[in-house]
Task: structure prediction
Amino acid sequence: MIEAAMIWNEPNNKSHWDPGLDPEWKLFADHVIAAGQAIRAVNPTMTRVLGGMSPIDPHWLRRMETHGALDAVDVVAVHGFPLDWNLWPLSAWPDKIAEIKAVTDKPVWVTEVGVSSFGAEEVQVFGLERTAELLRGAGVPRIFWYSLFDLPQSWGAETRHREAEGSSYYRHFYLGLIREDGSPKPALDAYARHAEEVGLMQWFHFHDPRLDEAVAWMKRLGTRRIRTGLSWADSFRPGAIDWFDRQMDALADFDVTVTFCFTPAHLGLAPHHTSPAREPQAFADFCAWMIDRYAPASGRQQRTAEAPRLADGAEVQSPELTPLHFDRDERLAGERSAA
Result:
């Protein structure tokens, strides 16, 4: 079941949101407000989470509050990798949580935390054990370890780090508890001791062949919670809804925090997944559609919400679409006709 909807991923990280197009994050705040309101409209009990900030920055969070974004969410989230990229020590986790709690009264979740095994697999074991201890001690109600699987080297990492930057880039491929060849690392046993309280964060790419294996491992480990994503951009691929259905069916036995992100190229201010959408309401419509389909309000049947198709012969040109003149279903249909 879906227990929470996260609005974007690492929005203060230029790998995931383009600050050149939105230097004050005002457009991002507009996306959050529209999405938060749309999610609340289709399921009033759904927990709405502000996309995990990375770096952990209370000044950025204050900016979001100034823009009105915090009124549209119930939880704020942070991401941290102090043994790999952050410029603060592992022992500072309680201080980092306290910095955010000092500027908001909303619960603070840690929706991505991890340690790579790039230098030594023993470091990953130590990092997992100590991180779990520190975050539980800081009273963090939700913790998601990144990740179950190593990122396959052939896929490439979605990051601002480049190969020329020493180990920074390559560490992305060693954050899993299971190696690319399917063999477990020593940290897997360490994680199993915390699986009841510490969830897993695992992205599944479109038609990811690892989905069933991941589910089998998580059940074996006793994992209760998983954070994953449904890509707005992927929703325009042929067969997207079949893949989304398969993914959510496979994860039905877990408490899922689902992340909505990635702008379709044809709907962005720039043709890139980090771009703000031309119309934030279009992103909100996607979020509402996904929640209505996979976590409808009590009394509504699942899987009845679909992106509708235009009638035969009807055409809508994307530049002429004005969300103020269409309801949500019509807007979704128009976007897919214009894609």
In short: The chain has ten helices and eight strands. The domain at 2-306 is CATH 3.20.20 (TIM Barrel). Strands lie at 2-7, 47-53, 75-80, 108-113, 143-146, 198-201, 225-231, 255-261.
